[in-house]
Amino acid sequence: MAVERLDLSAAAQAESAEWLDALTTGVVVIDAGGRVEHANVAAQSLLAVGLNSARGRRLLDLFVEAAPLQDALHRARDSNETVFDYEVSLRPISAGRDTRPVDLAVTPFESTDGARRYVLELSDAEPRVRRQREQALRARLDGGRLMTRQLAHEVKNPLGGLRGAAQLLARELPDPALREYTQIIISEADRLTTLVDQMLGPARPLRRARLNVHEICEHVYQLLRAEAPDAVALERDYDPSLPDGHFDRDHLVQALLNITRNALQAVGSSGRIVLRTRAVPQVHIGRIRHRLAVRIDVIDDGPGVPEHLRTTLFFPLVTSRPQGTGLGLAVSQELVTRHGGLIEFASEPGRTTFSLLLPLSESEMEGTP
Question: Which residues of 69-105 are buried (b: 16+ CB within 10 A; e: fewer)?
Fold first, then answer.
C-alpha cells in the first residue's frame, strides 16, 4: 500500500470515515507527532478504546508495551515506505491483562494540506495463529498417540503372560505367606494393564445425548468440592444463555474432571479455582470455522505450567508431578477432540486457564440469541 497524497478536507474525511468503518481491517490515521486523528470501528475494537477517547492522544500511549509498534513507525518514517510486521503482541491499556497478536502495516503519506501523516493498518492475527497452533498440536498429538499405542501394545502382551505365570505359581506354593507375593505380582500386573488401557485411549463410540454443559460442570464441581481442602475456594461463573448441545456426558465429565483435578493439585492446600462457561461466536477449530462454540474454562491461581513443559503438555507420559502418570491431559484432549473440539491453555504465575472448546451444530443454535 503506497499513498502519496490524500485529501483530508472535512467532506472528504466524513466520506472516508464511512467506508473505513465498513472494513474488517483496523485503520488508524496519526499525525506526524504520533497522535490519533481517526480510527475506524475495527481499529477501535482492536485497541479496546472508542474514537472520542483515542482522538488527540499519542497512539503509543494506548498500549502497555508499545516498543514493536514504535519500531515500525520509526522504520516507516526513516524509509518513507510502507513497513510490515507480523504477529506483533500488543496489549491495549483498556484491555486489562489481554494481549493479542496483530499483523500491522505502517504507511507514511503527505496530505493535500502538506502535513505529514501515517496510516496504520491492524489485522487481528489471532485466528491464523490459533489455526497454526492447533495444526501443530494435532500433528504432535497424532504422532504421540501412535507412539503411545505402539508402546502400549508391546507392554500389554507380556503383562498378560506375567499375570498368568503368577497365578500358576500361586497354585504350586504350599506356604500362604509366599502366595502373598504372587498376589502382589497379580495386582500390580492388573494395575499396569489398566494404565495401558488408558494409554490406548477410549475405544467405544460416542454416546451423544442432548444436554447442557452446566449439568456436566455442576457434576464435576460437586466431585471437586468433596476432594478440595477447606482453604481452597471453588467458584462458578456460568453463562445462562448457553444452548444445549449433543455431547457424550461420560467423556466430557472425565475430560473436565482430569483438568479440574490438575488445578486442585496446582493450588495445593489453599487457593482459588473458577469454573467458567462462555459462548464463543465464529471460532476456528482446526480448519473448520464454527458459528458458535461452548467454552469451559478452568482457572486457577497456582504457580503456572513450567516453561519447559508447555510445548509437550498434552503428550502422554508428560508430567511435572513425581507421582503423576502424565495421562490425564492426553486423555482429556483425546476425548474433547472426538467431539470436534480442542483444549487450549494460557499460563502465567498466579493465573492458569485451561479452555475446552466444544462446537455446536446449526440445529443446536436454533433459538439462540
Answer: beebbeebeeeeebbeeeebebbbeebeeeebbbbbb
Task: Name the grid cell of 135.
Answer: 495444526
Sole residue written with cell 461420560? 250
Annotated domain spans of the chain: 5-124, 129-200, 208-365
pTM: 0.53
Q: Which of 337, 355, 336 is nearest to 345 (CA)?
A: 355
Q: Buried b / exposed e across 320-359, counting CB within 10 Å, b at 16+?
A: eeeeeebbbbbbbbbbbbebbbbbbbbbeeeebbbbbbbb
Rounded distance, CA 329 to CA 337, Å? 12
Out of 3.40.190.150, 3.30.565.10, 3.30.300.30, 3.40.50.2300, which CATH number does the structure's domain 208-365 have? Answer: 3.30.565.10
C-alpha cell of 300?
A: 486457577
Query: Mind giving me the DSSP string for 186-209?
Result: HHHHHHHHHHHHHHH---SPP-EE
Q: What is the pLDDT along the chain (369 residues), one digit of tens a residue?
A: 444 444 445 445 555 566 676 677 888 888 888 888 888 887 887 777 778 877 888 888 788 777 888 888 888 888 888 888 887 777 777 655 566 778 888 888 887 777 788 888 887 777 776 666 666 666 666 655 666 666 666 666 777 788 888 888 888 888 777 777 788 788 777 767 765 665 555 556 778 889 999 999 998 998 888 888 889 999 999 999 899 999 988 889 888 988 999 899 889 888 999 999 999 888 877 777 888 899 999 999 988 888 777 666 666 555 555 454 556 677 788 888 888 888 888 888 889 899 999 998 755 555 454
CATH class of the 5-124 domain in this structure: alpha beta
Residue 278: strand, helix, or coil: strand
- Looking from the CA of 152 toward its CB, the CA atoms found within 13 Å total 19
| 104 DSSP β-pair partners | 85, 122
